Amino acid sequence: MLAALEHATGGLWPYLVVVLIGFLPTEIWRVIGVFAGRNLDESSDLMIWVRLVAAALVAGVVAKLLLAPSGALAVVPLWGRAGALAAGGLGYWLMRRSVLGGLVLGEAVLISVGLIYA
Amino acid sequence: MNAEPVSRPFWPSFVAGVGRAAGLPSLVLMASLIGVGGLTRDIGYPMFAGVLSTILIWAGPAQVLLFGSIAAGASMPAIAIAVSLSSIRFFPMVVSIVPLLRGPDVGIGKLLLGAHFVAVTSWTEGRRLLPGLPVAERFPFFIGFACMVMAAASFATGVGYYLIGALPAALAAALLFTTPMFFTLSLVAGSKTRADWAALILGFVLAPLSTFVVGQDFDLLAVGLIGGSAAYLLHRTRRKG
Fold first, then answer.
1. Mean pLDDT of chain B
2. Residue ranges per domain, chain B?
3. Deepest of B9, B110, B132, B223, by most Cβ within 10 A of its Cβ?
4. Is the Cβ of A92 closer than 8 Å to some Cβ of chain B?
5. Could you tell me if residue A10 is left (phi over 0), alpha (psi between -120 and 50 degrees) or otherwise beta?
6. Helices then strands (H, E): number in chain B?
7. Which of B45, B177, B224 sits opposite A57 (nearest CB)?
8. pLDDT, tens digit, for every residue of A48-59?
9. Residue B103's beta-bridge partner residues?
10. How many CB contacts within 8 angstroms connect chain A with chain B?
C-alpha cells in the first residue's frame, strides 16, 4: 500500500512525509501548549516520564545510525565509529562540558579513521 | 506605517533579536542540522524536503527520528508516533513561555506563530532574555531571534545536503557522523539525574536488541517506551528509598 501511495504522489511523497509524519505530530503539542491556559508543572511525574521516553528514543535512533549506517558513514568501520563517539564524549568532559568541543574532537577521530579506510 | 502611529515599532526589537541570535546560538543550530541535510540525501529525499523539515518540524531530534527511522526501514505510523512522543516536551515548554510573549497586541495568531518557533535554543534563550525586556518588545525580539537561528539552521541543512555528495569519502562520513555525535553529546549534557543516564544508556543498548526482537517496523518505539519507562521506574524507586 505504501509503495502504491508513493507512486501515486510521485515527487511530492518526501514533502508529504515531512508534513504528515514530521510536522503534524510535532506541531500539535505546540498548539495544545498555546491553548492550555494554566501553568503546567514541568516537574510532574508525567512530564518526567515523557522526558525519559524522548531521551531513550533519541538515544535509540542515534545507536541505529551508528551501528547500521547507510551510505557515506558505512566506509568507516564499527570500531572507528564507536571510538570517535567515545573520543567525543571524552572531549566533552575534558573541555569543561563543551558540546562543540566534544563534537570537534569526535569528528577529528572519525576523519582520521576514515582517511585510513576510505 | 504612518497609518498606525499608536502601534509600537516592530523592527527595532526584531533586529535586536536577530543580533542576539547571530553567533553561538546560530552556530550550535548549524552544527546540529548540517548532518540532517546529509541524512536527507542519504535516504534519497530532495534537498528542499530536508530544508522544509527544518522550517516546519523545527526540532532536531524529531527530524533525526523521522529520517533516521526511514533509513532504518520503520513503518510510517510507528515513525509518526515516535516523532510525536519525542515532541511532547514542547507542550510544557510552550505553556511556560506563552505568558512571556503575551501582550496587548499579541493575540492567539501571534502566539501560535511564536509557539511554532519554540525549540530548545529559542526556549532557553527566550526564558533567559525576555523577562528583562519591556512587554511590547518581547514578541518581536523572540521572533527575530528565532528567525535568525531558523535561517542559519535551514542554510546548514541545505549545505549539508550538497556537501555529502561533493566531499571526499572521509569527510562525507564525518558529515553524517555529526548527527549521532551532536545528539549524543546534547543528551549527555542534558542528563542530570540517574534516571536521565539510565534512559540514555538503555536507549543505546536496547536499540540493536530490539531490531531482532520486535522487528524494524516498531523497534524504535519499543526502545523509547521500554527504556524510558524503565528509567522512570528507577526515578520512582530512588525517590521512595
1. 90
2. 11-179, 191-241
3. B223
4. yes
5. left
6. 12, 0
7. B224
8. 888 899 889 889
9. B106
10. 319
